[in-house]
Amino acid sequence: MVKQFFLISVLLLSAGILLALSDAASSIMTGDSSTVEQTEQENQIKNITLINHGGSLEGHTPRGFAGSGTGLFVGDNLNANFPEGDGVQAFITFDISPLEGTSFESVVLTSDNVHTRGTPFQDLGNLIVESVAYDRFSPRLWDQETTGFVCTLATEATSSVVCDVTATVSSLLEKGESLLQLRLRLEQAGDSDGQSDMVLFYKRGSNINEPGIFTLDTRLTQQNTEGQKQDQANTALTVPIVVHLVKDSAEASTLRTQEEVGELLKESQKIWNQAGITLEIEIDNQVLSEDLINATATGDFRQLYTLPRFDTSRLHVFYVSDLFGSNGVAVPPHIALIADKTSVDDFRATAHEIGHLLGLEHTTESRERLMFSGANGRVLSDAEITFTREFVQMGN
Residue 392's pLDDT is what? Predict the structure, then answer.
């Protein structure tokens, strides 16, 4: 089951294309998810991406009246009933406990989900970030005393923002804190012109807060690799996987296309780059017999092992229409299934179920972790990295 390569890629044999995730064997860069970078000096630097809480510790609150909401936006004249000259601030939270005990070069707050309404920067000034601390999100947070200015996040309309929060995160970790909490606001609350001037942060809708609207991209220093095996710094381990799109199989059939799954798997690969593991993917369309359609409909997924020419030297991931409300199901040692509709990012659900097939169990330590159930975490611990690499090397 183990092959060793210096080039990380996703091979889509049935589509006849190679989705390369790097251009050179000596340098592997994988974008904005948790990554492993290999340099020409064969030293390894690991990048970790944490995502915002997306839950009860986040939202917006206005100044002039007792209220709050889940959406992440700042500015004035939110709607026709908004008090004249009043404004709104937004609050976000990150669990930074995965960074405890690490040494990092930088921690950068980013968002590619920025939207502008009106002329907030011309009328209300720059968008700034302040550090705050609170146990419960409430309307009273407008008057919460800041623990320090962090950065100017934007000075003009833009679709993405970047802010260096290295010093703030370092200070919090030194104090034993596990949460980074930030207030976003414009320099002026409102201007009483009756026009809505807003900066909004969202993926699907302005009133929908969810994990991943903001990220913390952390570049760890070289010392963090000392406890990992030397071969991880030099080579990538390859896990061959056949991805089956269940088609023409009545209610079990997926609506996904090979192109969509190919893009999804690129993102799953970024997560597994943390462990220096390449997912070598072959995609096909799989038609199930009537017996197997009935088996999947009743949750008897182990019957998929009876498929003709089932290759036990590779893992098998099946994309199906529904899994009774579950995002994914692992049926060790070789099979995982992913539903069409998932409550978390589908590429993360795929990476999570692959983790089960590589011997990992659920964790309850942090929602930032890949193996935390029902969340969008993407981080693998050092222990999980070591375990999965040994698991693959042993040919399980």
Answer: 92
